[in-house]
Structures are given as C-alpha cells and as structure tokens.
Amino acid sequence: MKETANSIDLDVESDANGEVRLARIRFGPHYLVEVRKEQGETSFELCYTHHGFKADASDVDGELERLIEEVRRTHPEARID
What we know:
Elements: E1 8-14, E2 20-27, E3 31-38, E4 41-48, E5 51-56, H1 63-74
Antiparallel strand pairs: 1-2, 2-3, 3-4, 4-5
C-alpha cells in the first residue's frame, strides 16, 4: 500500500464458506484497524506502525468494551455518544 495522509486501504478475507474472517483497514500515514474471527472468538487490533493493542471483542462488557470506556474516561474530548 502506498502510505499517504489521505490513503485508505481495505482488505477482507473470507473462509471457504464465504464467511468474513478478517477485515483490515489501513489508513493515513501508518494506522491500522483489524477485526479477526478465529475459532469462535473475535479480536480487535488498533495500531500505528507496529505499536498498538489487541483486545478480545467476543462479548458484550468484555475486554474491548472496557478498554473503550477507559479511553472515554481519560479523554472526554474524544468521546462519541
């Protein structure tokens, strides 16, 4: 992917049954969002270059939801409601 401030690149991978198993969005100069389904679990990654975090996104009130709430508390100017 050619990385520029205005670029957005979407990759989607499906299994043999056509079910989406990976959605990856690369954007801006070096950012990445990835959602992956493996063995019944859903994971979420948010990164810049090779730094970021990964969270389990399989359940309501799970790891990803708790991380989102932590960011909302510590950065109220960035909240979306």
